[in-house]
Amino acid sequence: MSVRVWLRWGVLLVTTAILLLCWQTLPTGGPGSTLPKLDAVLAALGPGGEWDVYLRALRTTLIEAFAGLAIGFVAGVVFGVLLGESPVLRRGFYPYALALQALPPIALAPIFVIWFGLGVESKIGLVAAATLFPILVSTMTGVAQTDPVRIEMATAFAATKAQIRRKIIFPGLVVPIFSGLEISIVLSFLAAITGELISANAGVGVILEVYQRDYRLAEEFAVLMILVVVGLLLALVTRIARRAVLERMPHE
Amino acid sequence: MSDVTTSGRRVSPLRNVVRLLGPPVAVGVGAVLLLQFVLARFQISGIIIPRPTEIFEVMRSEIFIEQIGLSVWQTWQATLIGFALGGGAGVLLGIGMNESKLMRFVFYPYVVAFQSLPKIALAPVFALWLGFGLTMKFSFAAMLAFFPAVIATLSALSTVATMRLEMATAFGARRGQLFMRISLPSAVPGIVSGLEISMAFALIGAIVGEFISPSSGLGQLLLTYSESINVAAEFAVLLVLMLLGVAQNKLLFGAVRLAARRFFEPA
To answer: Which of B149, B166, B185, B191 has the fewest beta carbons closer than 10 A?
Structure first.
């Protein structure tokens, strides 16, 4: 047992060491080189790196992501509840929702730029459009899957429509909405960066392109490394939040 | 489905069709008419939101039909190549990681690290390495298609019922037999779902590739129309792109699902 564990760690560490060594030695690092050396990237991540630039860009991107996510979340829940409660509306709108979902949301980026300009607004719009559908679909399915027996029972006991919503339908929505939200959190960050890559005046996508244009590849790769860390942190926070939400749910 | 309602009364097929298709058609026609009327009534410029008739006009023009046909092919070519490479490699790595604990242990940290990077941010780097054109597009598409395939394959294979595996082992099944007869058939639906996501990502990759280093395809067409502020044409492209997405996700993968079910008939 312990020999196998040692072996596994050994192989992992050795492969990682070889990869890092290749990264350090293979790129020439001179003019014309398209991959910065490892030590250059690490230097750009060190105290001498342009942390004020990185952090300002990251702040812009995160603000866009969360503002857009908030709009997409509210709209998704509202429309999801509406479509979930009315079979006629659902039949009427669902094919279009499916079709719109098949459209890659990032393809909307040029239109949002025409509508809202180069600033944060167009990115917020794009993020909202991208995050809306996962939340809408999961909310709608959650409403439609509410146990009809419980609703009939409550109706028999003369519960009002508002009471049925508050006591039966809404509590059952927490878990499905949260699973939609998990997808949308990832999408929000992605859509914000895509929007910035296509046309923007600030944010992570912009500094990536500016560094590349100025041929400062070490800084560009440093920003990519920072994105990995931010992505891991977002995933971690989501995971903790899911555990908290599931624990607070009443067990039936 | 059935032409008998819950009360047992027979309903004419025509009424059934109206009941099923009525609401979506009503919503579609209503939205188009409302949009047309509101945009005309409040004299909203076609630069902001084009009228449905303007979009229709664009879609009928010969130039557009010619351009869109070519662009759809260019984008889908990159999508297909990228999907085949990335999705295929992803399924293989997923199988490898399931079969070998060592491989799983070694590759897992890298998969997680890449998974948490918003991979679209790598588009400029791909443009730097591979320049313009088809190679850059399909490589980027392949990279995006790779990870959903790995994750789906791994999770589909690792949820195969251990009892069936143990039973077969007890009856002396070899490793290859276990994989071909039990693990793979029961993992196929999960893998196919993963590949569906992979292909959607490959399409995104092809389009982002065309946005970042424009050479051809729907992405470049969108940018061109955007620069000339031809919003009606942009909407027309988006409509076509939506149809492409539906065809790819629903029709193509519907067929793949059916074929997979036929081929891997559960014993």
So the answer is: B166
